[in-house]
Amino acid sequence: MAEPNLQEIHDLLIEVAKKAGQMITSARPTTGKLDTKKNSTDLVTSTDKAVEEMVSTTLKTKYPDYAFVGEETCTPGTSLTATPTFIVDPIDGTTNFVHAHPYISISLGLLVNLIPTIGIVYNPFSGHLYHSIRNQGSFLTTALPFGSPTPEITRRLPLRAVEAGELRLEKALVCVEWGNEREGNNWKVKTGTFAKLAGGGEAGGGMVHSLRSLGSAALNLCGVAAGEMDAYWEGGCWAWDVCAGWVVLEEAGGMVVGANRGEWEVPVDARRYLAVRGAGGVEEQRAFVESFWGCVEGRLEY
Q1: Contact indicator for 277, 167 with CB cutoff of 8 Å
Q2: Spatial separation of the C-alpha atoms in residues 257 and 115, rounded to whole Å
């Protein structure tokens, strides 16, 4: 198999993302007619399925030798391999989508040798398109209002200047998600950790500036990449939720480790992650990770 033409694939994925965006913004979702997977909080719509069908057909036609893993068609027990693999979430943020909350994205990633290599994350409602190729930087292309001299503007990530010494838990805006498990060990670990992160310093808490729960893992990772949030702690999501955003984050100087203490290296399908924005250096990031892990109440198990 020939080496992937990364720029060609990147450009095609952007085209596919924009076509998917048109399908999503023209849909009329409701909370009345829904399919569920694990439970009543794990939702899927006909639009999720239609978008994934369009994406898979397009990519399999163009790259028939590549593997494809999509949220709506992945079968239990599927293992990732070194074969170039498209990792796709047709609508990351389905709960937001059915409630007409516009924080959703199409997440299109490419793994090469199990390494996240291309990432395209597109929010069709805001017009924010995050895109990245490994070792080539991360960028945000934003649609401008009608009548502007140019239709869009592209900026390199991070958007916020990185200053040495600024990345500290007590100054952090941290993103977390509740997930669809509402009982058991992981629920206990999550809720305990949320409380510890937000709790006062005298009681041993992290005293972070605040917590945010926004509903799209891919966009959360991109928000950390942009410097709009300092960290994102997650358990329970899947490779299709994080693959594309992972590239965007790392190429913006960020890092991804495990959600549990000591997990300095995790694969894309680990299902538990801590994403940290770029900082004054790797040592500063590692010190932040250690302090964050100190607030994790137990161990997430997936």
Answers
A1: yes
A2: 14
- What pLDDT score does 202 carry? 81
Contacts of 290 (CB under 8 A, 6+ apart): none
Q: From residue 22, how far is each of 29, 140, 238 by CA, in Å?
A: 14, 19, 25
Question: Cα–Cα distance between 221 and 249 in angstroms, integer?
Answer: 6
- Using only the alpha carbons of the chain, give its radius of gyration: 19
Q: How far apart are CA 109 and CA 95, in angstroms?
A: 21
What is the side-by-side order of every strand in the sheet holding 173-176?
210-212, 173-176, 231-235, 272-276, 255-257
Q: Which residues contact 70 (CB under 8 A, 6 or more apart)?
A: 52, 55, 56, 86, 87, 88, 89, 90, 240
Task: Output the CA torsion sign for 72, 74, 77, 83.
Answer: negative
- Look up tokens 């694939």; give the residue: 9
Across residues 59-76, what is the average pLDDT? 95
41 close to 182: Cβ distance less than 8 angstroms = yes
Question: What does pTM read for this prediction?
Answer: 0.94
45 within 8 A of 98, measured Cβ to Cβ: yes
d(CA 285, CA 296): 17
Dist. CA 273–CA 197, nearest whole Å: 16
Proportion of the chain above pLDDT 70, given as a percent: 95
According to the model, what pLDDT value does residue 58 have? 98
Could you give the dihedral angle defined by the CA atoms of residues 24, 228, 238 and 269, in that order, rounded to the nearest 10 degrees?
140
Q: Which residue has the higher pLDDT, 33 or 60?
A: 60
* DSSP 8-state symbol, 215: S
CA distances from 5 to 2, 17, 287 (A): 9, 18, 37
Rounded Cα distance, 230 and 5, in Å: 33
What pLDDT is stored for residue 77 in this prediction? Answer: 85
